[in-house]
Amino acid sequence: METYQIIAIIGVLIFIYFIFFRNKNSAQKEISSLNEIEYVGSSTMTFDDVAGNYEAKQSLLELVDFIQNPEKYSKFNVRMPKGILLYGEPGTGKTLMAKALAGEAGVPFYAVSGSDFVQVYAGLGAGRIRNLFKKAKKSGKSVIFIDEIDAIGKKRAAGNIKGSDEGDRTLNALLTEMSGFADDSGTVVLAATNRIDTLDKALLRPGRFDRQIEIMLPDKNARKDIIKLYLNRIKAEDVSIDELADLTVFFSGAMIENLINEAALLAIRQGSDRISGEHIKKAYLQVLAGVEKKDYDNGMQKTVTSYHEAGHAFVSRYLLPENKIIRVSVIPTSKGAGGYTLSTPKSEEIMTKGKIRKHLSVLMAGRVSEEVFFGKENITAGAQNDIEKATSLAVDYVSKYGMNDETFINYQLLSDKLRIPLTSVENSVKNLTSEIYEKVFKIVEDNKEKVEKIAKLLMEKEVIYQDELENLL
Ligand code: ADP
Ligand code: ZN
C-alpha cells in the first residue's frame, strides 16, 4: 500500500469514529433531556387569573366538567373535543388558559413546546411525543399542552406524501397518540399557535384539534380587567385605570403585565410602597422604547384604523344591507388585518355581476375613507390586504367571469392559446377598479358625518356590535 492510501484510510477511520461518538453523545444528551422538557405539575392557576378572553374562558369552562366526569358525556354518546387549538397573538394568555383549565379541573398539567422538537435526531421527536402521552396516560386524567405547535405541524411540502422527514414523523406520532386515547379518558390536549395559517390541515380534522378558539388581543374593556387584576396585587394610588386602558391599545395581556411590573419595580427603587400614576407613565415610556417600531404611535394608528374600518362598515351597510355586520373592530387580528369588519354571509355566495361590484366597493371603502378624512398624502399601508383581495376579484371579473364589456372570453386561455401578452386585461382591470373607486369615494364623501360617527364610536369602544351600529345610524 502506498503511504497516501494508508493516510487516507486512517483519515476515514478517524472521521467515522468522530461522527459516531459525536452522534452518540448528543443522542445521549437528547435522551437525558427528555424528562426536562416535559414540565409536569399540578397547576394552581384558575380562570380568575385570566382576565378578558370571556368567550374563550366560557368555552374552556365546559371542559372542566368533561375532564372531571367524562362518563357523563360518553353515556349519552356525546363526543367532546380531544384537541383544542388556541390561536392568536403571542402574550394573549394561551398558556395561562391551559394552566387554568388544569388548575380548575384539578388534574396534572403536561407541557411541551413544538420548538423543542426541531433539530432533534431521527425518531427522537416522535419518541418524545409517545413518551409524553405515556406519562399523561399513567396519571389518568390530565391536560396536555403543546405550545408553538406550528413548529411540528407545518403544512407538508407538496409532493412529500410519504412523510419521510423528521417533522412529519413527529407530527404523525402526535396524530396517532391523539386518536389512541379513549374519548372518556378525561384527557384533553391543548395546543397553541400564533400562526394558524401555516398549520397542516391534518391537524384540524375531526378527532384531532377540531375545536379552534381564537384568543384575541384585549379590547378596552378587557384591558381594564387585566389592569385591575394586576393592580389588585400591588398597592396603587392615583392610577387612572381608564387612562391606562387607553394608553395600552394594541397591547397584549403579557405587555400589560410587564408594564405594571416595571412600574412596581420603579416604585420599589424609589423606596415607595405603592405604584403611582407617575410610575406608570415612566414604565410606559420604558416599555414602549423596547417595542420594535420607534415611531410607535398607537393613538394615531387607532385613529386611522377607526376611520378605515368605519368606511368598510358604512359602505357594506349602504350597498349590501342584506349582509349583516356582526362586529367591527380596530384591534388587529392574528391573521394580519389591522382592524376587522365581520359581516355575514361571507363572500362565497353565488356572485352576480352587481354583487361582485358591490363587494369590490366594500373592499375599497377602508382606503377611501382614509383618503377622504386624512388626504391622499396620508393613506396608510393598512389597505394591503383589501387591495390583494380586490385585485384578485377584479381580475376574475374581467378574465374569468366575462363580465367586463360583456366579452364572453376567458382571457387566460386566450393568451395561452394565442401566445399573446394580457395587456387588455390589465387595462380593463385598471379601468374597472378606478371606476368603482370613484363611486365609493362619492358615497363616503356624501355620507361623511355618518362614517365619522362610526369612526368616533370605534375610537371610544374599539369593538362595536350589530345593534350598536344600527342604533347609531
Ligand atoms: P401566550 O401563551 O398566548 O403567548 P401567555 O399565557 O404565556 O401568552 O402569557 C404570558 C403572561 O402574560 C401570563 O403569564 C400573564 O402574566 C400575562 N397575561 C397574558 N394574557 C393575560 C390575560 N388575558 N389575563 C391575565 N394575564 C395575562
Ligand atoms: Zn380594510
Commentary on this structure:
The protein is an alpha/beta fold and 473 residues long. It has four domains: 1-32; 47-214, P-loop containing nucleotide triphosphate hydrolases (Rossmann fold, 3-Layer(aba) Sandwich), CATH 3.40.50; 220-289, Helicase, Ruva Protein, domain 3; 300-472, Peptidase M41 (Methane Monooxygenase Hydroxylase, Chain G, domain 1, Up-down Bundle). It has helices at residues 3-32, 34-37, 54-68, 70-75, 94-105, 124-138, 166-180, 220-231, 241-247, 253-269, 277-290, 298-319, 353-374, 384-399, 411-418, 423-446, 448-461, 466-472; strands at residues 39-42, 83-87, 108-113, 142-147, 187-193, 211-214, 324-329, 340-344, 463-465. The strands form two sheets. It has a six-stranded mixed beta sheet, with helices on both faces. A three-stranded antiparallel beta sheet has the order 8-7-9. Strand 4 (142-147), helix 7 (166-180) and strand 5 (187-193) form a beta-alpha-beta unit. Helix 12 crosses helix 17. The longest helix is centred in the N-terminal third of the chain and has 30 residues, at 3-32. The protein is globular, with a radius of gyration of 28 Å. Residues 18-37 and 159-164 have low confidence and may be disordered. The chain binds adenosine-5'-diphosphate and zinc ion. The site of adenosine-5'-diphosphate has 17 residues, from helix 5, helix 8 and helix 10.
